[in-house]
């Protein structure tokens, strides 16, 4: 799995860098089936914009189809009305409920990979996920989870991996302009954790 830390002041630079890395990866690996990629980063770094524009570019090929998903390829997480605008304000679950949710997310990712992602890959599709289980390592509070980090990391290690992981970054001032509901200190901590994550993701 290939990791890329894309730092930029605007989504045009990010799109260009992502596109360069994708083309390089496709050419080097001589992709004969589909490609599974993930975008990570704080809310407000421009993931949705980059994903949308990259999807438009690759409509011309080499993939037969392009499928974009939020968090996991299941219907529950694709409804924009169910996506929390400020998840950090919610109270975290108890230890027991956190464990149940982690187990649920593990099987959700596992089954959705084999029943949704894998068949699409076989049919030469480009699959793009906005967020992935790696997000829980960086920001468990977003998912209202309070549990030992080693267990969360273990879950991420034993799940099927994406082919490429892009970690988008931007100056905190720009992020906060887009996501004013998140305070500066929280953004600063999350930004650092995402940048540290690129050295921890392993196949």
Key phrases:
203 residues, alpha/beta
Question: Overview of this structure, please?
Answer:
Helices cover 46% and strands 15% of the residues. It has a 5-stranded parallel sheet, sandwiched between helices. The model has no long low-confidence stretch (mean pLDDT 83). β3 (65-70), α3 (95-122) and β4 form a beta-alpha-beta unit. α1 packs across α2. The chain is an alpha/beta fold. The longest helix is centred in the middle third of the chain and has 28 residues, at 95-122. The chain contains 7 helices and 5 strands; from the N terminus they run βαβαβαβααβαα. The chain is globular and about 45 Å long.
Gyration radius over CA: 17 Å
- List unreliable stretches of 5+ residues: none
The beta-strand count equals 5
- Report the sheet-strand fraction: 5-15%
pLDDT averaged residue by residue:
83
Largest sheet: 5 strands, parallel
Short description:
The protein is an alpha/beta fold and 203 residues long.
Question: Helices and strands in order, then pairings?
Answer:
Layout: E1 2-7, H1 11-29, E2 35-40, H2 47-57, E3 65-70, H3 95-122, E4 125-130, H4 134-138, H5 149-158, E5 164-169, H6 172-178, H7 184-197
Parallel strand pairs: 1-5, 2-4, 2-5, 3-4
């Amino acid at each position: 799995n290939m990791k890329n830390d894309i730092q930029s002041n605007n989504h045009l630079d990010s799109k260009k860098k992502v596109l360069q890395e994708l083309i390089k990866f496709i050419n080097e690996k001589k992709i004969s089936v589909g490609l599974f990629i993930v975008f990570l980063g704080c809310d407000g770094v421009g993931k949705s914009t980059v994903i949308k524009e990259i999807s438009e570019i690759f409509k011309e090929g080499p993939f037969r189809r392009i499928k974009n998903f939020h968090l996991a390829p299941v219907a529950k997480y694709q409804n924009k009305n169910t996506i929390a605008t400020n998840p950090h304000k919610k109270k975290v679950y108890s230890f027991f409920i956190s464990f149940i949710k982690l187990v649920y997310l593990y099987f959700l990712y596992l089954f959705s990979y084999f029943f949704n992602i894998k068949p699409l890959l076989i049919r030469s599709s480009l699959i793009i996920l906005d967020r992935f289980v790696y997000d829980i390592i960086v920001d468990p509070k977003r998912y209202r989870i309070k549990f030992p980090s080693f267990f969360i990391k273990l879950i991420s290690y034993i799940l099927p991996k994406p082919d490429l992981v892009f970690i988008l970054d931007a100056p905190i001032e720009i992020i906060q302009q887009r996501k004013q509901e998140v305070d500066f200190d929280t953004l600063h901590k999350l930004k650092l954790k995402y940048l540290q994550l690129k050295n921890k993701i392993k196949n």
